[in-house]
Design brief:
By secondary structure, the chain is of the alpha+beta class. Helix content is about 15%, strand content about 35%. The chain has one domain: Rieske Iron-sulfur Protein, CATH 2.102.10. The protein contains 2 helices and 12 strands. The protein binds FE2/S2 (inorganic) cluster.
């Protein structure tokens, strides 16, 4: 299921998509955020152990409910670029459905190979009914200087922003 929207009504439809889309490997929610640089989605249908793929500003992010706490990581295994949305969430670890690498959703670090590189981590705030996911990864470096800014702009253009 794919839902996108710009206003409150569309966001309400996206909320339904969240409930229907748990464990989907496809992006199910694409909505503009309430605050600049973030996206807000409903998590009322997500039980502990569920995950949800959310499109955040052109990136696929995997939102994970671990015992009522929400964490978000890039939805792309760093081993062979496979979507993690169909993988199992085992406590704090998301398991890649292709070769079985496991990543800790709290810090994105691989806990089991063959992946060696960490996933990008996105900050999440939640009141239990909704979750607000930052559009930029937590550890994305801030560009400094003209050359760094040009590189950052180039990366953003490649992502299709
Ligand atoms: S593609 Fe994920 S472990 Fe190989």
């Amino acid at each position: 299921m794919s839902v996108s929207g710009d206003d409150t009504d569309d966001t309400a439809r996206a909320v339904a998509g969240v409930v229907d889309g748990v464990d989907s490997g496809e992006p199910v929610v694409s909505a503009k955020g309430r605050a600049a640089g973030s996206v807000c989605v409903s998590v009322e249908g997500m039980a502990a152990g569920d995950s949800l793929v959310v499109s955040v500003d052109g990136r696929e992010v995997l939102l994970c409910n671990v015992a009522g706490r929400f964490h978000a990581v890039a939805n792309l295994c760093t081993h062979a670029q496979i979507a993690l949305g169909r993988g199992r969430l085992l406590d704090y670890e998301i398991e890649c459905p292709r070769h079985g690498a496991r990543f800790d959703v709290r810090d994105g670090k691989p806990r089991r190979g063959p992946a060696r590189k960490a996933l990008a981590v996105f900050s999440v705030t939640s009141d239990g009914r909704t979750a607000e996911i930052s559009a930029a990864p937590v550890d994305e470096p801030v560009p400094v200087g003209r050359r760094a800014a040009a590189g950052a702009i180039s990366r953003l253009l490649r992502r299709g922003r």
